[in-house]
Design brief:
Elements (H helix, E strand, L loop, with lengths): L10 H4 L3 E5 L4 H12 L3 E6 L11 E5 L5 H15 L4 E4 L15 H28 L5 E6 L12 H20 L3 E7 L6 H7 L9 H10 L5 H13 L8 E3 L7
Parallel strand pairs: 1-2, 1-4, 2-3, 4-5, 5-6, 6-7
Helix pairs in contact: 2-8, 3-4, 4-5
Bound molecules: NADP nicotinamide-adenine-dinucleotide phosphate.
Length: 255
């Protein structure tokens, strides 16, 4: 059972809302989908591998690569046609590869990471802004999933950290340009996902801070996807108002 959040999640306001999540086939995206479904939020879910439908709410799923602009647009339209206008758009898809000192990284791998972590977020953001302009007035929220690596220096994560810093700045500018949308770049904290397993598989030469993440794993000091999802729903409902566009989900209290 997830820890209760210290703000209201008004059921009547959230039930039946429509959320779109990229990167929902595993990890944080799949966990967000499961929790949103528990709150009665309808879902459009995509990743390169077609996500599973969570129990408890209506969901449309599709295999879509976020670097394929036309495909992402078509899927967003299909979701809105079937479920209604999208209220909450979560650009969650992201990759941490390539890891290691920048001098050792392959240019093709770097370009692929930028295409997903920045390009995919820019595309998703544009699609949501464009579709929101045609939808009936309502409180709508854009969430771009960032990382503490946007501002902390982790050797071995130059490309990943730079891509997340770009996501933060993109979101700040979009928040200024689109006063009708609630926009936040959200660092979720550390979450127990396949990405974290991959991080722990690296050697200290590739990723010198590996011990920090091994310790978090051993202590189970994670933020759960449900805790993070509830913060995103608080932002959508307006019962949680982060003081800035860039927001770090607080650490989940451990019982
Ligand atoms: N886990 C953490 O501790 C942590 C901390 C801070 C920030 N984050 C951020 O949280 C987000 C989710 O991370 P995670 O830990 O859940 O990672 P993960 O376990 O590796 O899952 C990543 C998800 O993104 C999808 N994806 C990757 N490339 C894609 C593409 N080109 N098009 C569509 N979907 C794609 C993957 O599905 P397919 O392979 O099926 O495409 C998968 O569903 C990322 O943005 C990550 O940077 C995670």
């Amino acid at each position: 059972m997830a820890t209760s959040v210290p703000f209201d999640l008004p059921a009547a306001q959230l039930e039946g809302k429509v959320a779109f999540i990229t990167g929902a086939s595993r990890g944080l995206g799949a966990g967000l989908a499961a929790r949103l479904a528990e709150h009665g939020v309808q879902l459009g879910l995509c990743a390169r591998h077609e996500p599973e439908r969570p129990r408890g709410s209506e969901a449309i799923t599709r295999a879509v690569d976020v670097t394929d602009v036309a495909h992402l647009e078509r899927f967003a339209d299909a979701v809105a046609e079937t479920l209604g206008p999208i209220d909450l758009w979560i650009n969650n898809a992201g990759i941490i590869d390539p890891m290691g000192p920048l001098r050792d990284l392959e240019p093709d791998h770097i370009q692929q990471a930028l295409a997903v972590n920045i390009g995919g977020v820019i595309t998703g953001t544009q699609i949501f802004i464009d579709r929101s302009a045609d939808a009936p007035p309502s409180r709508r929220a854009l969430i771009n999933i960032s990382s503490g690596a946007a501002s902390s220096v982790y050797e071995g994560w130059s490309v990943y950290g730079a891509s997340k810093a770009a996501v933060d700045q993109l979101t700040r500018v979009v928040a200024a340009e689109e006063p009708g949308l609630v926009c936040h770049s959200v660092a979720p904290g550390v979450v127990d996902t396949p990405m974290q397993t991959f991080i722990r598989e690296q050697d200290a030469e590739t990723f010198p801070a590996i011990d920090r993440f091994v310790d978090i794993h051993e202590q189970g000091a994670w933020n759960s996807p449900a805790w993070i999802a509830d913060h995103l729903l608080g932002i959508l409902a307006g019962t949680l108002a982060p003081g800035s566009v860039v927001y770090r989900v607080p650490d989940e209290p451990r019982t």
